[in-house]
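Lab notebook, bench 4. Still working through the backlog of constructs that have no structural model yet. Next entry is a single chain of 226 residues. Request: give me the structure tokens for it.
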Amino acid sequence: MTSKKRIVIAEDHTILREGLRAILDDYPEFEVIGEAADGLEAIRLCANLAPDLLLLDFSMPRMNGVDAIADIKKQCPRTRILMLTVHDSVEYLSLAFRAGADGYALKDARQEELLRAIRTVLRGEKYIPDAVAGEYAALGLTVDGSKEDGEAASTLTKREKVVLKMVAEGYSNKEIASLLYISPKTVDNHRTNIMGKLDLHTPQALTFYAIHIGLIEVERGQASPR
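Model written out:
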């Protein structure tokens, strides 16, 4: 007989938390063993209960989901984390995976998709919702910070990384040139080289890539830099 998968739900909205529990209670393969209303409580419960899976809300009081992941993974490295969010944004998705999430599910998803996300993550696989998977892949990003990203970034010179960071922060070529004491033409050459090395050809793609590899940070509660 297969043992039940033990699950903790961390969600600050009581109705949503109770709804998730009601869904999971209908499936004998799952057992909800704890509920949390903020990130600090999620950390405490995972440390005490060591669940197989944590359903973790992105935005919560006291400590949000992204900030809680590092502590949870440190104390419970075998606990899989499925991030729950309303943000169907590649930037938020990249932020969640960089923090250490194992999956990313949208709160407005159908029940069947939520169950698919849970089962996928419990199998040890990454999960990305269909709503953003295509765009994420098109930008050349991976869900696990794989060596492909590192190898691509390693081909950039120090100056190119500086320029990429400034592009991602929203600076124009003229502003970058002024700040770095180089000509706009030189900045344009750097941008051309960067796009060629990374095979990314729009400012948006460069921005998402810079966020994904940790070159810049996205502030909590914001969807875009600068």
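Notes after review: The two ends are 53 Å apart (CA to CA). The CA atoms of residues 24 and 115 lie 9 Å apart. Flag for follow-up if needed.
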